[in-house]
């Protein structure tokens, strides 16, 4: 039954071939005419994308900047002669250091054969090739500056000032004090000037009946000038005047 339905056959009619060719030309014509008709509706940008070439690829990124070169300062090692350091490697050959002996006969520029009575190796401080002369003596040391004399009076003890007393006036015993049997010590503080005279006499203590007689006598006393580093200076001292009644 199927053999009756599907029967293969070939058609070689010129009309059929011509019709097929015409239909193919129509299809091609329609495919070419449609884009020309709808050019306005498609848009220029979309059409440009179809007609232009694709954009070029983006440029490659710039190369990274070169790394900064850090300068490293190498400190040379100093050889410490006070410590012993073990060598890192054993040398194959050990060299011995031999010191040359110093010449014992004369020096360069000296007299051939030397000078009788000379010193081997020359004179310490001499000149090579020069005449044997003695070294110049060292300069004398500078003189020591004298210490300045003190501007303020210097305080000394009463025993020191009594030893320097060269003129002593004995006070007269007041009659009233003698009648009242008053006796004792009148103490003063005074400044001995550079010429040995009494200056700035002040009462420290004592019986009132004896003060005036002691004051008049002490003002006439004379002392030897006190020297400090060879210069006379003012000194502060204490002066005691004794009043004693005879039995």
List keywords for this structure.
single chain, 4-stranded mixed β-sheet, elongated, 25% helix, 8 strands, 247 residues, disordered N terminus, alpha+beta, two-stranded antiparallel sheet
Question: What do you see in this structure?
Answer:
The chain is of the alpha+beta class and 247 residues long. It has 7 helices and 8 strands. The chain has helices at residues 2-5, 14-37, 39-42, 44-51, 158-163, 175-179, 208-218, and strands spanning 154-155, 165-167, 184-192, 198-205, 222-223, 226-228, 231-233, 235-243. The strands form 3 sheets. Strands 1-8-3-4 form a 4-stranded mixed sheet. A hairpin with a 2-residue loop joins strand 6 and strand 7. 7% of the residues are buried. Mean pLDDT is 75; it is low at 1-9.
H/E element sequence: HHHHEHEHEEHEEEE
Question: Which structural class should the secondary elements be placed in?
Answer: alpha+beta
How would you describe the shape? elongated
| DSSP summary, beta strand count | 8
Strand order of the largest sheet: 1-8-3-4
Q: What percent of residues adopt helix (DSSP H or I)?
A: 25-40%
Largest sheet: 4 strands, mixed
Total of helices: 7
* Poorly predicted residue ranges: 1-9
| Cα-to-Cα separation, first versus last residue | 199 Å
Q: Mean pLDDT, rounded to whole units?
A: 75
Q: How big a fraction of the residues is strand?
A: 15-25%
Which radius of gyration do the C-alpha atoms yield?
Answer: 68 Å
């Amino acid at each position: 039954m199927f053999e009756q339905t599907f029967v293969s056959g070939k058609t070689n009619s010129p009309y059929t071939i011509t019709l097929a060719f015409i239909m193919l030309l129509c299809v091609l014509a329609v495919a070419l005419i449609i884009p020309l008709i709808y050019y306005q509706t498609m848009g220029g940008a979309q059409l440009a994308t179809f007609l232009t070439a694709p954009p070029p690829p983006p440029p490659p990124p710039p190369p990274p900047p070169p790394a900064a070169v850090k300068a490293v300062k190498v400190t040379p090692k100093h050889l410490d002669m006070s410590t012993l350091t073990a060598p890192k490697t054993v040398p194959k050959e050990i060299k011995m250091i031999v010191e040359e002996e110093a010449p014992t006969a004369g020096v360069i520029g000296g007299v051939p054969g030397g000078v009788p009575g000379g010193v081997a190796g020359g004179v310490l401080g001499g000149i090579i090739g020069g005449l044997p002369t003695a070294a110049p003596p060292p300069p004398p040391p500078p003189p020591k500056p004298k210490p300045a004399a003190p501007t303020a009076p210097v305080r000394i003890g009463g025993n020191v000032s009594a030893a320097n007393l060269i003129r002593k006036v004995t006070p007269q015993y007041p009659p009233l004090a003698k009648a009242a049997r008053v006796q004792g010590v009148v103490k003063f503080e005074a400044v001995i000037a550079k010429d040995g005279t009494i200056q700035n006499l002040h009462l420290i203590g004592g019986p009132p009946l004896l003060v005036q007689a002691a004051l008049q006598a002490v003002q006439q006393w004379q002392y030897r000038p006190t020297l400090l580093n060879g210069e006379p200076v003012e000194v502060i001292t204490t002066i005691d005047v004794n009043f004693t009644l005879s039995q």
